[in-house]
User: Which sequence fits this backbone?
């Protein structure tokens, strides 16, 4: 299994969880590699008893990483390479030129249109793979339209969560001051955290926003908190080691993104018993059913976002109903018990 990096994030989490479970299959040996340097998730994968190799790429144009990957495949006698994200998919595809007889499967995890060259590269390298795995129909649609991949080559397998690890994490909140609302994820422009900040400002102290995560937009977000004068209603926590640490502190998760592939934090919140407000964006609407397992609003509509947050926070009966139905949904559709068999079919194991 090959990913671009093994830092904290949605796709590295999927790689870790899948690798640990595949290791339990009789007659299967699993190893994980990343193109970049050793990261936090590499420690966790190694601690779970799965071999890990960091190929140490010095940048996007470090072509030596392909040579190192090809050598690793030959040295370990790997017969199947399952790669994730465009850089790993490209490296795996090029390594296939010198590794005849090795099976290649690729995964795409995003619906972000930009940078367009990512989709152009993906369209070139997909030919090296037997199948393309995506987590949602929105990602499948993007792959067809922007990378020119034939729909019949694509298999939709949703991301999954170990439900038992999240049960009891969420708590019900009464009238005890500002209601704790959370954002969990990388601080990137596509997440539109600024919209969430504006919505918090409109609610005038009804909620307190807890931001868990880090990234390139942190400075811009902190500056906007200052401009809006909402510092007393927002706490920046930085990155957390486990999602349970964040979800255990909030009663409502809000995701205002303009595009997602399949946000892991949504099914983690569903499993934890935390209500959800999100945008009607690709990836989010694949997971959240508006009015049934969460509330969806148009992307960029700060007024509607604030109204949805106010409604969910103020209506305990509605909130509990959303949480209950989301719990049933995550156990029925997004548990590893349900999803793992679909990977076995694709990988031919």
Assistant:
């Amino acid at each position: 299994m090959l990913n671009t990096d093994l830092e904290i994030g949605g796709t590295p989490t999927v790689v870790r969880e899948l690798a640990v479970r595949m290791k339990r299959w009789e007659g299967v040996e699993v190893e994980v590699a990343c193109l970049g340097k050793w990261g936090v998730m590499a420690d966790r994968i190694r601690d779970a008893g799965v071999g890990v190799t960091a190929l140490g790429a010095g940048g996007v144009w470090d072509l030596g990483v392909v040579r190192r990957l090809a050598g690793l495949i030959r040295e370990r006698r790997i017969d199947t390479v399952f790669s994730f994200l465009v850089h790993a998919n490209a490296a795996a595809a090029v390594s296939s030129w010198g590794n005849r007889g090795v099976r290649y499967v690729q995964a795409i995890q995003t619906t972000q249109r930009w940078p367009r060259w990512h989709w152009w590269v993906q369209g070139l390298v997909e030919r090296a793979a037997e199948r393309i795995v995506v987590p949602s129909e929105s990602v499948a649609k993007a792959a067809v339209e922007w990378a020119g991949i034939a729909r019949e080559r694509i298999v939709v397998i949703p991301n999954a969560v170990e439900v038992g690890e999240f049960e009891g994490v969420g708590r019900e909140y009464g009238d005890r001051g500002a209601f704790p609302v959370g954002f969990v994820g990388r601080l990137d422009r596509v997440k539109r955290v600024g919209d969430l900040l504006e919505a918090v400002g409109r609610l005038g102290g009804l909620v307190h926003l807890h931001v868990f995560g880090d990234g390139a937009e942190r400075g811009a977000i902190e500056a906007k908190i200052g401009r809006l004068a909402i510092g007393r209603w927002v706490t920046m926590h930085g990155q957390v080691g486990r999602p349970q640490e964040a979800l255990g502190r909030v009663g409502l998760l809000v995701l205002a993104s303009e595009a997602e592939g399949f946000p892991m934090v949504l099914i983690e919140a569903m499993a934890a018993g935390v209500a959800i407000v999100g945008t009607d964006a690709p990836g989010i609407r694949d997971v959240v059913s508006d009015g049934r397992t969460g509330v969806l609003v148009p992307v960029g509509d700060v007024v509607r976002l604030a109204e949805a947050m106010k409604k969910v926070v103020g209506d305990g009966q509605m909130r509990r109903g959303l949480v209950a139905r989301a719990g049933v949904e995550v156990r029925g559709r997004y548990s590893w018990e349900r999803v793992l068999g679909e990977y076995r079919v694709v990988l031919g194991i």
Observations:
- The chain has 13 helices and 13 strands.
- Residues 163-333 form a domain with the Rossmann fold fold (CATH 3.40.50.2000).
- Residues 316-333 form the longest helix (18 residues).
- The mean pLDDT is 93.
